[in-house]
Amino acid sequence: MSYSDFKTIENIKDKFNIPIISGDPLFSETDEAEAGHILTEILKDNTSLALNINTEKARSELIICPVLVEVRRILNRKVSLFSGTDFNVDETLGLTGYCDFIMSSSPNQVFLEFPIVCIVEAKNETIRTGYAQCIAEMIAAKIFNERNSAEASYILGVVTTGSNWKFLKYESGSVLVDFDEYLISQVNKILGIFVETMKENVIRA
């Protein structure tokens, strides 16, 4: 079993017995982070192109990855970004396989340390299809950090189509699903959520 084999919220509840709660906005008070000129121009050129090509690969390369690279730039490259990373944490729990993207609070770009943000590309342009896989990766990130004696106040999960972004938190033994959903036109808010998360979770191993 791997992360992508978790298809439904029920799969997660049955396997891990973790409460999954939705209904409240999680980041309404979060400050925006202004996109730089380069990202602004990239999204101006790429967004409509990606949506017209309308494949997961196009959305990933033309929208999602540039946004995540911008988060790293805003944070002065003190965090790391991994794409298509093999993240085998616990085979007995099915927490193995590749992750679309992971952001770490460590600047080490050679190997993964201290994962804080797990990003999943939604399948078939439907955000809901990515929830279970994202939560499984968040659980794996928490286990990984605990094994390395690293504390994080919460793990952030993100499910995105490129044009739409949905955020989740794994905090205090529960998964919280943000009531709000953000469009790529709200990129400053999206960046702000990433930046706040990374700043709040500076790992001290």
Considering the chains and any ligands shown, give keywords for the structure.
205 residues; alpha/beta; tt1808, chain A; seven-stranded mixed β-sheet; globular
Q: What letter string, H or E per element, gives the SSE order? A: HEHHEEEHEEEH
Kindly provide the name of the CATH class. Alpha Beta
Going by helix content, strand content and strand pairing, the class is alpha/beta
Distance between the termini: 30 Å
Are there runs of 5+ residues with pLDDT below 50, and where?
Answer: none
What share of residues are in beta strands? 15-25%
Strand order of the largest sheet: 1-7-6-5-4-3-2
The major sheet is characterized as: 7 strands, mixed
Radius of gyration: 16 Å
Shape: globular
Count of runs of 4 or more consecutive helical residues: 5
Number of strands: 7
Whole-number mean pLDDT: 95
| CATH architectural arrangement | Alpha-Beta Complex
As for the number of domains, it is 1
Give me the CATH fold name: tt1808, chain A
Helix content: 25-40%
Q: What features would you describe in this structure?
A:
By secondary structure, the protein is α/β, with parallel strands linked by helices. The chain has a single domain (about 5-200), classed as tt1808, chain A, CATH 3.90.1570. Helix content is about 35%, strand content about 25%. It has a seven-stranded mixed β-sheet, with helices on both faces. Helix 1 packs parallel to helix 4 (about 130-145). The mean pLDDT is about 95.
